[in-house]
Amino acid sequence: MKHKIIKISVIVFSFLTFQACSSDEQSGSGQGQVVPAVEVVQAQFGGLPLEERLNGIVRAANQVDIYPRISAPIEEVFVQNGQLVQQGEPLIRLRDTEYRERLRQAEASLRINIAQRRQAQAALGEIESQIRRERILQQRDLSSELEIEQLEARLESAEASLELAEAQVEQARSNVEEQNDALEQTIIRAPVNGTVGQRNAEVGMQAGANTRLFILGDLTQSKVTINLTERMLGYITTGQEVRIFSENIRDTVLAGEVSRISPFLGAGNFSTEAEIDIDNQDGLLLPGMFVTVDVLYGQSEEATIIPLSAIYRHPQTGQTGVYVATSFGMEAEVIEELENNGERGSLSNPTDVEFLPVEIIARGRDAAGVEGIRSGDWVVTVGQNLLSRGSSGQARVRPVSWYNIMQMQRLQPQDLLREIMNGNVADRPQTGS
CB atoms < 10 A from the CB of 297, how many? Predict the structure, then answer.
């Protein structure tokens, strides 16, 4: 992406160079020698934030898929996409005729089993009375042992019949509860507070256990899921700062932190999931959206810091380095004002420019730490190819702020082209950070 930005920016500065050359020729300051116009930024000293760039998927808080637990045609739909619902609020009514009939039959079966239990209880009571009478008669030698044994066998059978009747009553009562629960499932209710989406329910449609009817979730709170490899678990932990951005919300970077990390690695891919809770009151994040997540997990050693767009591979020598405006300087007050306001300065008179090889010791998303130049040097950020085309070693430089160059680096190529077509590149208004 950096190379694309630089290539497109060259178009802009070729135009600026043409203007600068025409001005030189008209003023007689040059002998037909092209003096290109470039932009420069002042190198700084410090540490680069260490970050891991990952892709994430957005989900709503408490996001759930709504499936019916029973199979029946849909008779009424109470909600639409985008509608806010409360927990327990009805969403859909399924046809309940069959389930009401099943409940009626189950209740009738329960009544039959209760009556059969009463019969078993009565039969048991009658046998217990007979046994008591026979034992009294036996004490008077008016009954035989055989008659007592026969009654005890009948007693045991009656007790077993009562146990069976009681079990049948419990079974029938359980069936009633099951059928009553199935009848209640004909009204599908919201399990959580949230907003309805992905509606897939129409009156007359047959709904089954595999039919997803809605997605429901709290859009005011979002959860971004990222995948972490086994290696990343060595330096990414909960509580670390993250930045979230997307092409769909180009002007906004959301800040948060790693909320939780699953300790289980997936079989075969040796990765796990981490979740980031983000406040979404403004509704910028939509469920299912793909976002880019930068996890900030530390800081590099201090070094001279320059924008990535300043790094240039010389086409003749193949060396990686930067162009430095060696004879260019500005007053400290002017530099501070430039940085605070995020503005561009005006083009300077021709000044000496030299290519210096550098060694990259740390690379961040927008800047790199290098060795080979000093902090405070003015490095060319755009227009290096104009300097490498056999120029006189001089250029007219326009100082810019770090904020300005960071914003330019983050622009997409189509954005730069749009600004070129609109004629807004050379004098594009800037705002402070």
Answer: 18
